[in-house]
Amino acid sequence: MRKIKIIGHGVYLPENKIMFGDQTRYRVKEGVTQIDMAYEASQKALASAGIAIDDIDLIIHSGAVPAQLIPATATLLHERMAKGKSIPAFDVNSSCTSFITALDIASLYIEAGQYKTILIVGCDIASAGLNENQKESYELFSDAAAAVIVTKSDSEKQGVEASLQRTFSDGAHATEIRAGGTLHPGYIYKPEDRAEYLFDMQGKQALLTTARYLPSVFDEFFKKYDLTMDDVDLIIPHQASKALSMFMSRMKIPEGKYADRVSEYGNMVGASVPFMLSTLLSEGKIKEGDRVLLCGTAAGLTVNMLLLSL
Amino acid sequence: MRKIKIIGHGVYLPENKIMFGDQTRYRVKEGVTQIDMAYEASQKALASAGIAIDDIDLIIHSGAVPAQLIPATATLLHERMAKGKSIPAFDVNSSCTSFITALDIASLYIEAGQYKTILIVGCDIASAGLNENQKESYELFSDAAAAVIVTKSDSEKQGVEASLQRTFSDGAHATEIRAGGTLHPGYIYKPEDRAEYLFDMQGKQALLTTARYLPSVFDEFFKKYDLTMDDVDLIIPHQASKALSMFMSRMKIPEGKYADRVSEYGNMVGASVPFMLSTLLSEGKIKEGDRVLLCGTAAGLTVNMLLLSL
User: Fold this and answer.
1) Could you give the 3-state DSSP secondary structure of residue B235?
2) A70–B176 C-beta distance less than 8 A
3) Across the interface, do B182 and A129 touch by the CB < 8 Å criterion?
4) Which candidate, B184, B185, B304, B207, places its Cα nearest to that of A90?
5) Fewest CB within a 10 Å sphere: which of A26, A275, B132, B279?
């Protein structure tokens, strides 16, 4: 057990709500940036913890797409909320499950005594990269930010009990934005390449790689740590798509054992897992003492799992 | 002491050598990608360790600019060298000092027993983003990759002794690539904005923020860990610019106590620190038992320091 506890959390959900059939999605208004969103969520997290920015000794931004190519997004958030302070800031990226990786790293830092109180912000502005001609992905994603503050716990029963990450790169091109990095720099843009700068989801391939690998990583996780589903109070999966319930059902995980709010919120990319964690805490659906399993699949394909005792 | 040791390392240096006065710089040939470079360095590191990819249980890519916006660069490297394996892969970004942050994280993972053997690749292809109209930065940077493999050490005298990272965001815009992320997405490209997609260095501001913060973080580091310069055999700084010797001299660090190869190699962005570490090991200038101080300033402005006992 790496003894940490959540002392604050908060989310930012854009006002702009759009419906695709019975599916609700959120999109930022023109002019609202990734840094604005990350800042708002972070301020709420600080307020809910009853602490000030001076009490934070590390800022981690966890998300898929940066605000700028240089510097790290965490430093731009730092500029907004911590200018004049010397709080270290860096980015962690395992795409949609970046928060799980970042929380794993944060628990190691806290356990080692290197940092005391860490702000982790999961923030992605999906609508900055959606392709209106690809209905399946265009109607799936929402913009959001979520921030979680963790610190050392004195309880032996509180913290990160177990974590496992696996990457299967035969899924590397199932979900991607091919241009914008060094492989296809932005300044060689041609109008006919526009789609290369937008999110591209090969839905069927994404589902097949998830079907192929998600159950095996679940099995590995439970075996490795000698756990059963009875040890988990609630599974908080990345809200990847409407297929979530199908995957859970295939793995014989009953409804009610996992959070499925895809119709209500959509896929929030790197904000998805911390958004759901914060929302369920705010709603009182999970509480101190509960053991929650954060998990999900991410572009890569990465499967990430982390058992957190609240 | 977080007990780790380097068991393999390797670099990739492009064949294409160009001179700016007495300064040598390296640039990749057309068609050579960031993934090619990262792969070549990683293969050399595996060969020097005498191990195979199956012996690696985590891949961390540490650099400033990704190969694609989605997925993480580490997963694209995974696709090249570990396809069919389930080795986890993610990115860590603190810009030019990403390797130091990644090594810090790797040491925590190894100390916790979460992973046994970790491949950290520092790779940036600066020439993909240089502005030929900004002589000062255009003539400073080189493309390179460097890979380091670390594993658990049984010696109490080998590993990460101390680390400190600080971020001062009043330097957030001294060195940046403003476009390409969510703040200015690639698909809104206009030819008159071309420079926004290229690296922009406010040289004077970068020097001033470095002058302002680097010495204070050095002081904090040595005080916090009760160390003196006598505890360090060699300082391996990020080869940021020709001003390196001036900063070292101001901090009263004598020549010979630090590696200054700027004229020979230039600033390799995220590859700079591991490239120098690997090069000095290959040259026999540092060896087992030595205590080396990895350090540097990065866009952000981040100052990073890590004392490693080899």
Assistant:
1) strand
2) yes
3) yes
4) B304
5) B132
**Best residue in A68, A96, A192 for a mutation probing chain B (most B CBs within 10 Å):** A68
- Give mean pLDDT, residues A107-128: 97
Report which secondary-structure segment, H or E, holds B268.
none
Instruction: Report which of B130, B126, B170 is spatially closest to residue A87, judged by C-alpha positions.
Output: B170
Which chain A residues have a beta carbon less than 8 Å from that of B104?
114
Please tell me which of the candidates B101, B114, B181 has its beta carbon nearest to residue A67: B181
Interchain CB distance below 8 Å, A64 and B68: no
Contact B172 A76 (CB under 8 A): yes
pLDDT at residue B177 in the model: 98
Contact partners, residue B137, CB within 8 Å, separation at least 6? B130, B131, B199, B200, B201, B203
Residue A266: pLDDT band (50, 70, 90) is: very high
Shortest CA distance to B238 belongs to which of B97, B48, B41, B33? B97
CB pairs under 8 A between A and B: 269
Residue A83 tokens read as 């200018």
Whole-angstrom distance, CA of residue B125 vs CA of residue A185: 11
pLDDT band at A79 (very low <50, low <70, confident <90, very high): very high
Yes or no: is domain B160-309 CATH 3.40.47.10?
yes
Question: Considering only CB atoms, which chain B residues are within 8 Å of A72?
Answer: 93-95, 299-300, 302
Task: Indicate the Cα dihedral angle A196, A201, A205, A209, nearest 10°.
Answer: 110
Contact A74 B167 (CB under 8 A): yes
**CA A118 from centre of chain:** 16
Which strand (E) or helix (H) includes residue A175? strand A175-176
Q: What is the pTM of this model?
A: 0.98
- For A180, the closest of B69, B74, B166 (CB atoms) is B69
Domain locations along chain A:
4-154, 160-309
The pLDDT, as a whole number, for residue B8 is: 98
**Residues of chain B under the 70 pLDDT cut:** none
Tokens representing A205 are: 């391939």
Q: Residue A115 and residue B209: Cα distance in Å, rounded?
A: 25
Beta bridge partners of B10: B147
Q: Give the model confidence (pLDDT) of A179-235 as tens digits.
A: 999 999 999 999 999 999 999 999 999 999 999 999 999 999 999 999 999 999 999
Chain A positions in Cβ-Cβ contact with residue B165 (cut-off 8 Å): 88, 90
Best of B80, B187, B216, B219 to disrupt the A interface by mutation (most A CBs within 10 Å)? B187
Predicted pLDDT of residue A71: 98
Burial pattern B40-78, b for ≥16 Cβ within 10 A else e, equals: bbbbbbbebbebebebbbbbbbbbbbbbbbbbbbbbbbb
Q: Which sign does the torsion angle of CA B148, A176, A165, A104 carry? A: positive
**Are B4-154 and B160-309 the same fold in CATH?**
yes
Name the nearest CA neighbour of B117 among B278, B270, B2, B7: B7
> How much is the average pLDDT of A77-94?
98
Side chain identity at B147, as an amino acid letter? Answer: A
At the fourth CATH level, the homologous superfamily of domain B4-154 is Thiolase/Chalcone synthase (3.40.47.10)
